[in-house]
Design a protein that fits this description.
With 69 residues, the chain is mainly alpha-helical. 67% of the residues lie in helices and 0% in strands. The N and C termini lie far apart (60 Å). The mean pLDDT is 90.
Length: 69
């Protein structure tokens, strides 16, 4: 295949992609909208604390230090 055929095929594919409004929306705008929506929902959580329970089967000094950290 010559580079000229590849370039022509690529041009046709790009033009047909931009003619489909739903494809452009779900490729470009929809991810940006999702990022903005979830960013504003979860923005105010600065002091989040999680209580994690750990089962220490090793019971060595190293595992106790790891759990305390």
């Amino acid at each position: 295949m010559s580079p000229r055929i590849i370039a022509a095929n690529l041009t046709v594919r790009i033009k047909s992609f931009y003619r489909e409004k739903s494809a452009v929306f779900f490729t470009i705008a929809f991810p940006i909208i999702l990022i903005l929506v979830f960013g504003t929902i979860f923005m105010k959580q600065d002091n989040v604390r999680f209580d994690l329970y750990v089962q220490d089967l090793d019971q060595s000094n190293t595992s106790a230090h790891l759990i305390n950290t």
